Amino acid sequence: MDENIPGAAQCFAQFGEVVTRSGRQICPADVQDADALIVRSVTKVNRALLAGTPVRFVGSTTIGSDHLDSEYLREQNIHFCTAPGSNAESVVDYVLSVICTLEGLLETLLGGGRVGIVGYGNVGKRLGQRLSAIGIPWLAYDPLLDPKQHPCLATLEEVVNSALLSLHAPLTVSGLFPSFHMLDALLLAAMPASSVLLSAGRGEVVATDELLSLMDCRPDIRLALDVWEGEPTFSSELAARCAISTPHIAGYSLDGKKTGLRMVASELAAFLGQSLHVDDSEAAASALVVSCIGDDALSVIREAVLAVYDVSSDSQRFREIIHTPDRSEQFDLLRKHYPPRRELGYCHLHAENAAMTNLLHALQGGK
């Protein structure tokens, strides 16, 4: 089991002996006596890792699946699962924090500026719902979905023409619409003046060289990057040119991790024919209480979002490592020692101005 899954050792101990390892370093020798393997997206699960082992169950507590060789797992009749949507609200909170942090962006969006969403899956849908709830217009692009069933869908060119372009597409390298390097500098250069490009899905959706070229021809565009091509290796040059840069932690809320853990543990319990016992009392007891004193929507949104999660703190920690010779190792250490972070939906938000109560409720996704 990956050692960096909070609460996992205690949770999975009810099923048998638990052995933890660094996720990036899990090797065949580690699973020679394992019946189940629990990982995050940093572990490549394929024939090279599992051939000749007794592993019959693989669970990933993350939303993505590009690190799992699903074809091989099916061939070997190895049951596998991920945790789709488990950290979607955490990623939405990240986007909202970026909106509230970058100078003038919240004002632009509340004034009618549009958000363009690339990838209308679990994250994209929830981001759209939360934006609508607080009065921010948006469009989405997802070539795998039918626009007749999803009227919010538009062409990629239309979505790019937004004050904030937010990328949440999963990584795919085959099919009719592969997301690998799907956006280039030429297309992104059509973004409006002083717009923002945010990437919190997979780093390989836009090539590093394309982003650097974009910054050369359009220095007015601000970058907010949480994912990087080739992680944990990343371009220090690109990171230095970002307005906000973080080490793939958009979905790293305590609540998102707990949800992913619970989803995989439930799947394993069902696979084994056992009951699952989960203790959520500690998370419930640590919920934040935030009182907002603002009298207008802009002030209340910014105050509430940043009181719960201020992305600038994560960006500052990341900036301290981008020019270090061991930045790949430091990248992983920032993730391993990431401070506990709650989601807006699990906090108690109060407004001194009663007229702002519904706005806070909407900001939490209706929770």
UniProtKB/TrEMBL annotation:
Signal peptide: none annotated. GO terms for biological process: pyridoxine biosynthetic process. The active site is at R202, E231, H248. One of its GO terms (molecular function) is 4-phosphoerythronate dehydrogenase activity. NAD(+) binds at D142, D226, G251. GO terms for cellular component: cytoplasm. Substrate binds at S41, T62, Y252. Its EC number is 1.1.1.290. Residues 109-250 form the D-isomer specific 2-hydroxyacid dehydrogenase NAD-binding domain. Residues 299-363 form the Erythronate-4-phosphate dehydrogenase dimerisation domain. Pfam families: 2-Hacid_dh, 2-Hacid_dh_C, DUF3410. It is found in: Cytoplasm. Pathway: Cofactor biosynthesis; pyridoxine 5'-phosphate biosynthesis; pyridoxine 5'-phosphate from D-erythrose 4-phosphate: step 2/5. It catalyses: 4-phospho-D-erythronate + NAD(+) = (R)-3-hydroxy-2-oxo-4-phosphooxybutanoate + NADH + H(+). Catalyzes the oxidation of erythronate-4-phosphate to 3-hydroxy-2-oxo-4-phosphonooxybutanoate. Homodimer. Belongs to the D-isomer specific 2-hydroxyacid dehydrogenase family. PdxB subfamily. This is Erythronate-4-phosphate dehydrogenase. It comes from Zhongshania aliphaticivorans. The lineage of its organism: Bacteria, Pseudomonadati, Pseudomonadota, Gammaproteobacteria, Cellvibrionales. The gene is pdxB.
